[in-house]
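Before the break, one more example. Copy the sequence into your notebook; we will annotate it together after we see the structure.
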Amino acid sequence: MTKAIHPVAGAVALLTIMTFWLSTVLSELLSSAALVATVKSMIPWGFLILIPALMAAGGSGFQLGKKFRSPLVAVKRKRMPFIVGNGILILIPSALYLSSKAGAGSFDTGFYAVQAIELMAGAMNIVLLCLNMRDGLRLAGKRPAPHGTAD
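Here is what the structure looks like once it is written out:
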């Protein structure tokens, strides 16, 4: 069961974060302040999907990792504190702050400074989660290692 939950939960988490990130960028670049406010107010509601998905992916990954002694598992484990810390210390507080500011129509310097930090932290989590997904696929034998390396 854990083998089935882990990739699904990881994919849901990654797609949710990518949706938050792309929605933010596209609304800022292509639309009105009203749509930006709507996007920023919807992101905290997305935590109802994201947080359980991350918990399921992390918990199932921890269980699966007990069975493997691969260097890939060690690398995935090393990434996790950065992903979690980034989410808890930067992304969630930023999303709540930006939702509040956007809801008040306050698109000031503070809003854009925090949004820039949020976008960078979000991009970092997307990259780290993609790397974990790639390594998970390699562990599952669904993606070969690059030529010239021995995983």
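The mean pLDDT is 90. The chain has one domain: 2-139. Try to locate both features in your own notes.
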